[in-house]
Structure formats: C-alpha cells, structure tokens
Amino acid sequence: STTTSSSSSSPPSSSTKLPLSSLPPFEKFRVLHVDPMVLCVDDFLTSDECDTLVALTDNPKYDKNANTAPMKIGQSKTVGKDMYSKSQRTSTTWFHHYRGLPQLMAKASRLLGLDNIDRWEEPQTVRYRRSEKFTWHLDALGPSDELAKSGGQRVATLIVYLADLPEGSGGSTMFRDLGGESGEPLKVHPKKGSALVFFPAAGGIPNVPFDIRTLHAGEAVSDESEDDKWIAQLWLRETKYTPTAPPGNTHAAATDAISKYCNV
C-alpha cells in the first residue's frame, strides 16, 4: 500500500493507491436480477456508520469555513435537461466532502475492486419524508447532459439504505421492467446497512448510451409512515471525475481519513 506523509506541503494525488484490501471482504450478497445485474449487499455499513451518515446532514457543530460541512440542496425539482432524463423528485439532498465519509468511500471502492476513489461522484445523502418520492428515471447520462463532460458515463450506481422502514411504509426502490411473471416491478425495501448495486450503462440496446432496462423509481413513503427514508448514494464514472460540490471538495483530501479507517 502507499502511505502519504502528513507533513507534505501539497495534497496527495487523488489517484494514490489506497489500502482498501485491508478491509474484510463482503459476504452477504443477494443476486436480485442477473441480466441486467442487480445486487444487494447486506451489512455493507454497520448500524453505527449509518447513524453517523444521517447525523452529518444538519450538524450544528460543523465549522462552515473548514471545508467539511455538507451542502444542502433542499427539495429537488425536475432532474435532467433532456428527453432521456425528465423525472420528478421530492426529497432533500446533501452533498458531502469525500473526506467526511471515509467509511462509505472506502467500502464502495472495495466492493467494486478499485484501489482509489477518483472516479466517484460526490457522495450524497437523501431524505424522503411522507409522500415524497422519485419517479421513473435512468441514472445513466443522456447525450446532451453536461455532467458527462467530467468523467464520462455513469457506469455503476450504489445506494445504501441508512434506516429501516417498516413493511407497508413504501420507500422501496423499484425496477419497472425487472419484475417477475406477475408483472409487478422488482422492489428492494429499505434495510438498514444494506447496499443496492446496479450498472446503468452496461448493456441493453446497442449504440444507446444507457441500459434502459435499469429504469427505476423511489416509491413514495407512505402518508402514515412515522419514519423517514434515508439513503446514501454514489455514482461511478468511466474516468477520473472532477467534483464541484461542496466548495473545495477533492478526492485527494480524503486519503488520510480513508487510510485511517482502513487501520493503516
């Protein structure tokens, strides 16, 4: 593994190899669909790690000038600017510094066999309250999407459920075209600590920049639910990605925190 001197006057390269192989392998896999591949990894984050991510959203102890506070977006409106990505989302999103979420960044890269984090978009946490949802959409970027100029296409989606929701409370992640013979969509119900992984641009129709079979939605949280739905989400790009939020966010700044998390 590569170690970085804390006395260096410049930050380490974001492509520095991280000691991710020191983390234990994941063992609790569930294959939910084969083609396209949809996987669930139980116990991806510990219960305490989930609670930490939720607590980071509105922590009054943050020093707003220390480049560690998350950026709250507030309620999201229409997502996307072209015919491929028009959808509606009613939720609240926080963009986080990579160095503030070493547990998520380390485990996400370990899961996908990476030795650094420089292809990941900014980590986000999202809260859905009663009746809030995300309508049918694709995670892959359309031909006119400006986001593709940095890092290229989104090749993997990782969603981590940070809290349990009781059965019947809604909030499932639904894949419209991946259901069984009953015609019902494939549903993944929020289970605290579990991660959902799929690949939004890995197959489907030739010469189409995304896999339309991965069309999915966030089911509305029930009006009667006493609990909010909380998730963390990450998207992996084809090549090195340049983060834009929060201000001052860099992959390189997370090197020390991730190495410490990996006990190196």
UniProtKB/TrEMBL annotation:
SMART domains: P4Hc. Residues 119-238 form the Fe2OG dioxygenase domain. Keywords: Dioxygenase, Iron, Metal-binding, Oxidoreductase. The keyword Nucleotide-binding does not apply. GO terms for cellular component: endoplasmic reticulum. Gene3D superfamilies: q2cbj1_9rhob like domain. Residues 1-20 are annotated as: Disordered. SUPFAM superfamilies: Clavaminate synthase-like. One of its GO terms (molecular function) is L-ascorbic acid binding. It comes from the Eukaryota. The keyword Oxidoreductase applies. Its cofactor is L-ascorbate. This is Fe2OG dioxygenase domain-containing protein. It comes from Ditylum brightwellii.
